[in-house]
Design goal:
By secondary structure, this protein is mainly α. The chain has 5 helices and no strands.
């Protein structure tokens, strides 16, 4: 049985072995097949999935629960897109496309909420910065 060992996956994905095992434990990462000796044997798909997770966490600032929701929606979307293609040219195609649209809208809602949270934190920091600058100006004027 061919496959990548966890050390290789860790190097390629930039994650620790502990994190990879944890993602598997919580169901975020599908369990890989094992060798006869019980060693996990990962595929390139596992590595790509882990890179996708890392990107979502770093770029979008997702928590693990948000990440799980986003990945679930992404998986659902892929299945729906496949379904849509299977019904091309039939009356079912519209129904399938409506499902795709709903899933994309759910993903956009998740991103919109994350964006609102980031903008709130940014606003709080800008306000604090402005108050600190104003206080420094007052200190300078009192001299």
């Amino acid at each position: 049985m061919n496959g990548l060992k966890i050390d290789d996956v860790a190097k390629q994905s930039g994650l620790t072995k502990r994190t990879i095992r944890y993602y598997e434990q919580i169901g975020l990462l599908a369990s890989p097949p094992r060798s006869e000796g019980g060693i996990r044997l990962y595929s390139e798909e596992h590595v790509e999935f882990l890179k996708k997770i890392t990107n979502a966490k770093e770029v979008m600032g997702f928590s693990l629960s948000e990440l799980q929701e986003f990945i679930t929606l992404s998986d659902t979307l892929e299945l729906q897109k496949h379904d849509y293609r299977q019904f091309k040219g039939t009356s079912q195609q519209k129904v399938k496309l409506e499902k795709v649209l709903l899933t994309v809208e759910e993903q956009l809602k998740l991103l919109e909420q994350k964006k609102k949270n980031i903008l709130k934190v940014e606003g709080d920091l800008v306000s604090l910065r402005d108050r600190a600058k104003a206080a420094l100006i007052r200190f300078e004027q009192e001299k």
